[in-house]
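Re: folding output
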Amino acid sequence: VQLQASGGGLVQAGGSLRLSCAASGSIFSIISMGWYRQAPGKQRELVAHIPSGGSTIYRDSVKDRFSISRDNAKNTVYLQMNSLKPEDTGVYYCKLDALVQRDGRRWPLSYWGQGTQVTVSS
């Protein structure tokens, strides 16, 4: 299973970016997908999470500014980020929790994307 993230970049405060993360490989079913971020010197933190058949979750600081969505046909998760602030700067990682077909069995496994840099200038 591989995750390919894209969409990061440099933007001024108040601007917008849209991140994408496409999953490929022996995925039987997706349990959930999410976005995390890590700022320099800080721990990785959850930004938004979208489970299959459940409610989305956002960290408080991004509510009303960020929106997570999924295209199930493409196994792709998106993060629309509006009204960006300098404190949103960091490396953004997508995460996949899925049932993976392997050796004739299905395994619940987690995968991380390679990370995409988001820099918001003031």
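--- second protein (sequence, then structure) ---
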Amino acid sequence: QVQLVESGGGSVQAGGSLRISCAASGRTFSRYSMGWFRQAPGKEREFVAAISWTGDSTYYANDSVKGRFTISRDNAKNTVYLQMNSLKPEDTAVYYCASSLFDMRSLGGYAYWGQGTQVTVSS
């Protein structure tokens, strides 16, 4: 089992950047695929990005974030990051990190979740 704690959320103007982090406890962090999800008010939670346990492969939801968001991880620090550039008001949401023992593209495999961090983008 792994415990996840997100940080780094906040408020930013449209066009700005923000990097959010997710610190994991446990010695087996490097065995987990890691993903970022988000949930906007009144909407269902949606997948944003994922990274393989080695960090060699990444997967992004769609064109809405591809090219603007970058997921990365540092297994020595048990941390996964989401660098968000060119932020838009529609990126406003609570961002959650999650871990999975399955392939990063298997969205149903994310079993452990953090508490979320709020990202607010103003126009």
